[in-house]
Amino acid sequence: MKKKWTSWLALLLVCGMTIAGCGNAEKQNAQAPQEHEGYTASGPLTINPNIPDLPVQDIGPNGEKAVSAKSLKLTEEELQKIRDGKYTAAIVMHYSGTDYMTAAVNAMKNTFAKMGIKVVAVTDAQFKAEKQVSDIETVLAKKPDIMISVPVDAVSTAGAYKKAVNQGVKLVFMDGAAEGLVPGKDYISIVSGDNYGNGAVAADIMAEKLGGKGKVGIVYHDVNFFVTKNRSDAFEARIKEKYPGIQIVAKGGITDPNKGEEVASAMLTRHPDIDGIFAPWDVPAEGVMSAARTAGRNDLIVTTVDLGTNVALSIASDGIVRGLGAQLPYDQGVAQAILAGYALLGKEAPAYVASPAIKVTKENVLESWKLIYGVDAPKSVQDALKK
User: Fold this and answer.
1) Torsional class of 168: left (φ above 0), alpha (ψ -120 to 50), beta (otherwise)
2) Is residue 24 in some structural domain?
3) Which of 61, 150, 183, 204 could form a disulfide with 351 if both were Cys (CB 3.0 to 4.6 A apart)?
4) Which residues contact 255 (CB under 8 A, 6 or more apart)?
5) Are residues 259 and 377 both part of a single domain?
6) Do 234 and 305 belong to one domain?
């Protein structure tokens, strides 16, 4: 009897490991890079031609005029030269786990694969400068030819990036550069969305939803991070310049993206008559949504930047988040990889490259998702729009 029980136990353990293995395989498959429908597997490497030709309001951190990402190109001959070089790349991110970051990293991986470049590391600093410094030092031991990175803090990470430069690594920055580094000398280029434009779009949507009158608050990113500062500055400037009937009555800073709820709760307590709140991107905006629900303020209007699943659900269902300005993370990731190719070829690159701001409201949320991510919106978002 004991032998029979032992056999059954062994069988259960094997089945359990098999199920766990399948689960891990499914998880890995779900995280495999997904190609954007705006891109082809062969031919010259260019940016998605479906991106609208909209003006870009943003300027670079050193006052650089933005060049459209659609101007970038690698010919088939250039691609073959890069493939022949058997180069390697590291992707050093400030954080991960959002729809935006997943799309950006997948774009880099897919594009590097087309270029014959091996990705030797992908890191997540969890928005901690000290961890990013450690990540960079760990990555440098792998001796990559290319590094694409988003500095968590332009000042405190600068020394680590200078080590990369001294090691001969070709640096392409996403969203902002480390302090003291010079474009064309220390790094190749910066690629970003139109962050000023996105903040202005969020202000325009706020004004539309409020009918041009009301009181609003701003949750801002209280760190040395160029792009999020541009968004909040643009929101505030657009409200003051264009909408005299709207008063900004409160501002609260966050250093952790998960502190949006805490800051918004304090704002709603101090200003119970506030009509709307702007958050610098979708993760803190989700915290503002939670604070509004807790306070019984389902009538609060929230606008933000970046189209993630949860804010898309809110927009589709006439929820608390009513609209936003969106970046094009996949296309920006492709642009970063192309610029790395420019560096390997010795090809002159623009110092600052940007994609346009995309206005997203209930009327175009599904079309916007398809443009931004190259796939249909999640079923939950589609179903919310039907109700």
Assistant:
1) left
2) no
3) 183
4) 221, 222, 223
5) yes
6) yes
Residues with Cβ within 8 Å of residue 220, at least 6 apart in sequence: 228, 229, 232, 251, 252, 253, 254, 280
| Angstrom distance (rounded) from CA 100 to CA 329 | 6
Pairing of strands 146-149, 88-93: parallel
Rounded distance between C-alpha atoms, residue 218 and residue 267, angstroms: 9
The whole model's pTM is what?
0.84
CATH number at 131 reads 3.40.50.2300
Q: Residue with structure tokens 């030709």?
A: 53
Domain interval for residue 290: 195-326+361-386
Token pair of 295, please? Answer: 């306070």
**Both structure tokens of 11:** 């069988």
Residue identified by tokens 């500055």 is 233
* Angle in degrees, CA 7, 9, 12, rounded to 5: 110
Q: How far apart are CA 196 and CA 189, in angstroms?
A: 19
Torsion from C-alpha of 50, 372, 322, 353, nearest 10 degrees: -80
Q: How many residues does the chain have?
A: 387
Any domain includes 155: yes
Q: What distance in Å separates the CA atoms of residue 194 and residue 214, rounded to the nearest whole number?
A: 27
Residue 25 within a domain: no
Classify 83 in phi/psi space as left (phi over 0), alpha (psi -120 to 50) or beta: alpha
pLDDT tens over the chain, length 387 residues:
333 333 333 333 333 333 233 333 223 233 446 678 778 777 899 999 999 999 898 888 888 889 999 999 999 999 999 999 999 999 999 988 888 889 999 999 999 999 999 999 999 999 899 999 999 999 999 999 999 999 988 899 999 999 999 999 999 999 889 999 999 999 999 999 999 999 999 999 999 999 999 999 999 999 877 889 999 999 999 999 999 999 999 999 999 989 999 999 999 999 999 999 999 999 999 999 999 999 999 999 999 999 999 999 999 999 999 999 999 999 999 999 999 999 999 999 999 999 999 999 999 999 999 999 999 999 999 999 987
Other beta carbons within 10 angstroms of residue 163's beta carbon come to 13
Report how many domains make up the chain: 2
In whole angstroms, give the CA distance from residue 64 to residue 83.
31
Asked if 125 and 131 count as a contact pair (C-beta separation under 8 A), the reply is yes
